[in-house]
Amino acid sequence: MHDILALKDIRSHIEDIDIRSEFKPVKCKDQRKQLCCMYCITCEILVCPKCIAKTHHTHVMMEIQTVCQMKVEGMKKMQDQAHNKVEKFIEKLNLMAETEKLKSNDIEQKMLEEEKHGREFHSQCLRLLEEHKEKTKRQFERLSKKESEVLEEETDIEMVMHQVENIHKSKNTEKILGAVSSLRTNWSHLSR
Ligand SMILES: [Zn+2]
Ligand SMILES: [Zn+2]
Fold first, then answer.
1. Residue 41 lies in a domain
2. Confidence at 168, pLDDT banded by 50, 70, 90
3. 82 lies in the same domain as 51
4. Ligand nearest to the CA of 31
5. Which one of 28, 54, 67, 185 is least enclosed by Cβ atoms within 10 Å?
6. Which residues make up the environment of ion ligand 2, defined by Cβ < 5 Å?
7. How much is the pTM?
8. Looking at the domain assignment, is residue 65 inside a domain?
């Protein structure tokens, strides 16, 4: 598993603030010399004792510290929610990356196999071609051998034919009588 984002980099900053610690005193906007002592919930502002006496004495009040703590807790809750969302998003991203990696590995593997098959097929083709060439060569050799044999035989036949013609022309009785046996010897030599 390889993280796209490291979760440790995304952490709540509000966690660092101690909720129980004192918040800085605030000067009243209307009475510059006065410090605010309460928070008026009705008006949603900080108020000093003079302002309370003058305007806010019937309003709903709350301790500044308590309001601040509530606000901080609210912010913390929001930040936690955001953090959870980011966490889930990162998990999803990592899962997607992992799936993509697996897919990519699978494709790579298949391509390698195809390439291997291709190479095997290629060498098989070369081997068959080589065999075919060798076979053709041997066949050609056999044919030329046969051809020279036939040529030789043809020469022999021509020779016999010539002999027969000569004997016939000579009108020599003895030769004609002896010719049959000598020709028979030659024929038997030819048909070996
Ligand atoms: Zn005031
Ligand atoms: Zn008020």
1. yes
2. confident
3. no
4. 1
5. 185
6. 40, 42-43, 56, 59
7. 0.43
8. no
Lowest mean pLDDT: which of 21-30, 137-146, 155-164, 183-192? 183-192
State pLDDT tens for residues 62-108: 999 999 999 999 999 999 999 999 999 999 999 999 999 999 999 99
Same domain, 55 and 89: no
Is it the case that residue 161 has pLDDT exceeding 60? Answer: yes
Domain encompassing residue 121: 71-154
Total structural domains within the chain: 2
Ligand number nearest CA of 29 is 1
The answer to whether residue 172 sits within a structural domain is no
Q: What is the mean pLDDT of residues 11-25?
A: 58
Q: Residue with structure tokens 């390889």?
A: 2
Q: For residue 1, what pLDDT is reported?
A: 46
Same domain, yes or no: 100 and 34: no
Query: Which tokens go with 108?
Result: 């790579």
Distance 16 CA to ligand 1 centre (A): 32
Is residue 185 assigned to a domain? no
Q: Which ligand is nearest to the CA of 26?
A: 1
Look at residue 190 in the predicted model and tell me its pLDDT: 62
Does 112 lie in the same domain as 54? Answer: no
